[in-house]
Amino acid sequence: MAQRIAFPYRRWLGVLSVACAAVAVPAWAQSKVYVSSEKDNKIYVFNASGERQVAIDVCKRPRDMSFNADGSQIYVICGDSNAMGVVDVASGKLSGTVPLGESPEMFDLSPDGKTAYVSIEDDNVMAAYDIASKKRLFEVKTGGEPEGVLVTPDGKTAYVTSELANVVHVIDLAMKKIIKNIKVGTRPRRFVMSPDGAELWVTNELDATVSVVDTKTHTEKQKIKFEVKGMRQNDITPVGMAISPDGKSIWVSLGRANHVAEVDVSTKTVKSLILVGKRAWGLGFSPDGKTLFVANGLSDDMTLIDTAAAKALKTVPAGRVPHTIIVSK
Amino acid sequence: MIHPRRLPTALGRIAPQAAMPAARQSQFRNILGWGYLRASELVFLALVGLSSTPAFAATKVTIAVMSLDGDPRHAARRMERAYPGHPTGRAFDGVNLAAEDSAFELDAAGISLEVKDVVLPSAAGLTKVLAELKAAGVQHVVADLPAPELRALVQAAPAALGGAIVYNVALDDDALRGAQCAAHLLHTYPSRAMLSDALVQYLAARNWRKALVLRGPSPGDTLQFDAFIRSTKRFGIKATSTKPFKLTGDPRERDLGNVRLLTSGDREHEVVAVLDSDGEFARTVPYATQLPRPVVGAAGLVATPWHRLWGRNGGPQLSRRFAKLADRPMQGHDWAAWLAGRAVASVLVDSPKATVAQQLKTLRGGPLGVDGFKGSRLTFRAWDGQLRQPIFLSHMDGVIGVAPLEGVLHPKEVMDTLGVDEAETACKQRP
């Protein structure tokens, strides 16, 4: 097994070192992969080839994560601690927490990195926190069970899904108000934005679809339907998404279908489907886009995918209920 | 027992606002976005020259939740015992939560949903109550009723209300989905056949194939027994022996009342299935058998539409919201009531202007799915109005399995391996 695992990695390293001949060390060989484990209350740290290095103890039920602007800290939302943990990357230690509302889940940062916009499930709000002062700035009432949060690059607008109301809220962050609700599919979960900012993609967990929302008109302009051979629509439950660094593909994790799908951003067609572990949700890219890391929540492991070959390279244990994956530069 | 909130009025009872926010004023009506939205809608409508009801006037829709005064299922001391598969509170709480959960979505569709709590003073009072519901414009009735009153309601409601959908959230009787079915009767609580199939699928999946069956004397026990035997035939479980039980302390009847004696003769069995529609006897069986054998059915391992500790698909959030609102844990009947409310809300959002007859068609066999927090979109079977759904296998502490079990196959829809499938149905009434 170990040999089989090592082989593609070496081959890939070889290819990479040829491609980057001018650079002595491949740019992201030093990258680390951080995986939040909901039930171990830890962030597991892997190297670029998926070997586990260390574990960082954090707050209870860590879920969504993000680096701060310079990559020196990781913010992690802890659903059962009602807090955001701040992890110092260099020391690998939890250095502080910011108290949040009841059962926080996902978040996004303002472009200046100072404000965290967090979906608070049990309070049905999106709340804004000033990270430095740990103060709650304001909150906006949402539909039931808010989940995905995405702040636009200009920092003016936040999009939030409501799993119960089946809408995407468009929140004007200056007015601190919902200015529109966009009806999408059943149980909308998470977002990505196209590189040009013209499209907002939303996973609809119980429709086996992704809604593509036109950000100018704030209307749904297309639904991308997923099909997996031998599976019924009910078994296909899209949740996580990640856009490739070149902006050409959006990868969607299909939950219970145990697959991830690569969708071409311009044609909106599914280019490949790859079998991974059980209930794939969280996705993270290596900085060069060649490796996609997939968190399999019910098989407690992480699958590494060679995106060019559209093949799973290997699957490694990743703690109980891995949730989110982020990769350092 | 008169519960402080159970004050019968002319129209049964309407819950006081303070205690239960049944009729909700939208909290989102004044936000700027709605103004824009509504204004642009109006402009659009004006442009295309449609005459329509003004978008600003929210359409009020009322769901009535009907229960029966003195229903023995709801007696306080009975509910306190919380036998598995029996209600621990009334359906109103679940429907009320559904209305609250749906407020945002409904608001966007210009609908305000009110939940009216109606307690029938007696079966004879039905006509009068229906007349009052008609006056209030009610066409969706959630029935938390015993079987005779439910049948009377199903029969009278369409004519009395000018079209109606009745949602059975309380009863598992297969007959209500079979010979006694009705076109406008939907069931969110699983049928006995579904619960039984779920349990027996689990036994088959574990390869526990030999069951000693303990069977009670009441008509309800017989229905459970019939359903269990049907399931054993479907999934290849053998009933090694069937023994009648009786709740008795009489030494002359000890072979009927003593669990050890009841389970001692048959040495072949791998599990003990106790089929007890009441629950009192079943509670005495686990850990009291002659041989160390798991107990399933009405105690021990139980099939249920919901468990307060279901930890996936947003289950904890739903259970928490319910516990906050109703001050008790959410169980199967509460889930069925909540789901009925969500089904009404979903069909209203899907087609706000539809008539109740059209709504029925959309729900029963139609494409509309409801999120039941069990991981799948849930739809109603066209052939008998039953909501297809995953069923939890639970011991008291949590969920140990979910039916349909992995590996069970069906040519069209795996959830239809639970209960009565299209080819077997005795129901002839369709909308």
List keywords for this structure.
heterodimer; A: 329 residues; mainly beta; four-stranded antiparallel beta sheet; 1 helix; 5% helix; 51% strand; disordered N terminus; B: 431 residues; alpha/beta; five-stranded parallel beta sheet; four-stranded parallel beta sheet; globular
Explain what you see.
- The complex is a heterodimer of chains A (329) and B (431).
- Chain A is mainly β and 329 residues long.
- Chain A has one helix and 28 strands.
- In chain A, the strands form seven sheets. A four-stranded antiparallel β-sheet of chain A has the order 3-2-1-28, with no helix packed on it. A four-stranded antiparallel β-sheet of chain A has the order 4-5-6-7, with no helix packed on it.
- The radius of gyration of chain A is 19 Å and the shape is globular.
- The relative contact order of chain A is 0.13.
- Residues 1-25 of chain A have low confidence and may be disordered.
- Chain B has a five-stranded parallel β-sheet, sandwiched between helices. Chain B has a four-stranded parallel β-sheet with strand order 7-6-8-9, covered by helices on one side. In chain B, strands 10-13-14 form a three-stranded antiparallel β-sheet, with helices on one face.
- Chain B is globular.
- At the A-B interface, strand 15 of A face helix 1, helix 3 and helix 10 of B.
Summarize the structure.
Chain A has one helix spanning 2-19, and strands spanning 32-37, 42-47, 52-57, 62-67, 73-78, 83-88, 93-99, 104-109, 115-120, 125-130, 135-141, 146-151, 157-162, 167-172, 177-183, 188-193, 199-204, 209-214, 219-225, 241-243, 249-253, 259-264, 270-275, 280-285, 291-296, 301-306, 311-317, 322-327.
